[in-house]
Amino acid sequence: MLEKLAKGQLIVGDRAPLNVYARSGVVLLTKGSPVESEQQVQALLAQGYINPKERTIVRQDETDFKRHRYSRNVNPFLELESLYEELRLAFDEVEKHTSGKGFERRIRDICETLMFLANKQPDALLGAAHWPREIPSWLDHPMRCAVILAVVARPLQASKEKLTSALAATLTANLGMLQLQEKLNKQQTPLTEEQKEAIHNHPERSLLLLELMGVEDSIWLRAVAQHHERLDGSGYPEGLKGKAITNTARLVALADSYAALTAPREYRPLLTPRQAMKQMLGEDSQLLDARLGKVFLSQLGIYPPGTPVQLKNGDQAVVVEKGSAIHAPICAGIRAATGQIYMHPPRRDTSDPELMIKKILSKDILKPLQPFLFWRIKVSNAIAE
Fold first, then answer.
1. pLDDT higher for 46 or 349?
2. DSSP state, residue 131
3. What is d(CA 336, CA 343) in angstroms, rounded to the nearest whole number?
4. Is position 134 within any domain?
5. In a domain, 323, yes or no
């Protein structure tokens, strides 16, 4: 039974210890979400309820990544928030030069969680990775790369060990330029010679940092070292060609390129997923692995989950899963042509000529929305205690 939210249960700057519901049972704020302002708190106090039987969030020892046993109702949107924090803590260990196996264990635990989520809720996981959020790019980019690869790699039937190594490589490929990455994403002036050198050397620096942190996995290390090599020899830092570049490095390169091309940058217009795919598989097909690129396209589609679109019937909608063709996904309605917001997002099959996608919309329309509602994910009982 729901109880009225009480004053003091939400603190600005902290994370919500419980899900906050409307009287109808609709979730207004998910457990673990940041409480951003006093105005938000007052609005939730006016209409919010909690389930006192739900377990509250308790801060855990930062040196120990808690392993959960999941029930059938998995919420990738909540899980991804926790994984971002774990990745930040892993990067902090590198910054502080913490010795021991804590860093590698934390990275591998993140990878295992992503593989589990990709198996249980692949479309929702992709939606979570594409959903707009206020996270620095040095943290967001590697996580988006890993999510994309976790979903895309499923039909490749790679062993768990090799896939874990590939995901670990995507998370740590830019370890050698974390501080520079955020600056470059906001920079509008040409690169300095010092910056060019840092970019060229970052695979080798990332490799060195991983070795200093005790990583000995050769598949992981080689993928990091080679993720900017290109099939025609035009890549860096070694200028490797063709078969000299491992398959794992080719997968990491595709995930890295896609995530970079579809992320906002100050120095260039934002590319849509469709434009990114065209650039990766068109003019750059001689640089990246075209065969693996086709696997990416088949799994992501032209409009990946989490892409906001306008349909022919005037609906604003968000892509939630693959459809019968890569250009015709299944969407969930956000707003009707009349301006009415859908309380229960209807499914829209865009293979229907009357519901075909007309254009991609700005992700800004997604920011005030609760994302998991569009995937019909139950928040309660997501984690089996």
1. 349
2. S
3. 11
4. yes
5. yes
